[in-house]
Design goal:
Fructose-1,6-Bisphosphatase, Chain A, domain 1; 14 strands; alpha+beta; D-Maltodextrin-Binding Protein, domain 2; 6-stranded mixed beta sheet
Length: 344
Amino acid sequence: MENTLGLEIIEVVEQAAIASARWMGKGEKNIADQVAVEAMRERMNKIHMRGRIVIGEGERDDAPMLYIGEEVGIGAQAGAKGFNPDELIEIDIAVDPCEGTNLVAYGQPGSMAVLAISEKGGLFAAPDFYMKKLAAPPAAKGKVDINKSATENLKILAECLELPIEELVVIVMKRDRHTDLIKEIRDAGARVSLIEDGDVGAAISCGFAGTNIHALMGIGAAPEGVISAAAMRAMGGHFQGQLIYDPAIVKTGLIGESKQANLDHLKSMNITDPDKVYDAHELASGKNVMFAGCGITSGNLMEGVRFFPGGMRTQSLIISNESNTARFVSTIHLSGQSKAVPLH
């Protein structure tokens, strides 16, 4: 799968990031999202595959989306000439063409175009609910646990990383629902880095040394949790997620009018244990799993899109469990005549 689709999915996230970056700082989050969606769909439809979107985006706020169940790729196009659809690779795809729409709209760091792919059936089709998440470095894999308190996990994490708790940095989304969590982390002696949006990048940052990010804790969107899990699975990091279906817990924005309505919806999706804790291998269960992301605005992992006369430069990250690699790819895109192509 990596040999067949590796370069292709890099170009998918690159094109989405470039399109969205043109709207950076203009205060138009829906437009920044829409153009990323359109660019991602257009590029995916040129790939020799039969792809199915299992994680879409934008359902919570009616933003434009690559909808769940949408088929993409050459094999999805009626009347495509020169191809036998049965011979094209079949994959499931989780996408967020503009992870952090507010970050793009207001020119803040950390937005990305992201996707994850696996063979058919290899990604968990999460509902558009929320998810309690715990991400940690590979050294803590299987040792920290989402069922433990933040205080307990910080002690375990400190032992695994051979660091004092005071040096640990935990990323938490700035939400009212996290008031008690933030206080507990600080009372335990660790430091909190608050983010407004974009917890996919936060989760993945835990897997890399040198980011000064040691854990992600708290509740965020479930679809993005699957994408994070795919990346962490591919790089050997720790990720756990538990669906949150009670509106009283998240306090804002949850689809479904009531806790019972949400439970009924989960049951209709054949999710019989709504309180199950999923690990990365269950959220991204495929034999081959790949993650691709491209920076829209600069963050901990990647530079954002940089424009110059006659082109632009992007930086992407591709993680694959097939080759056990995490590749940072810097690409120059020439769109016209340039006086000089920048080296850096």
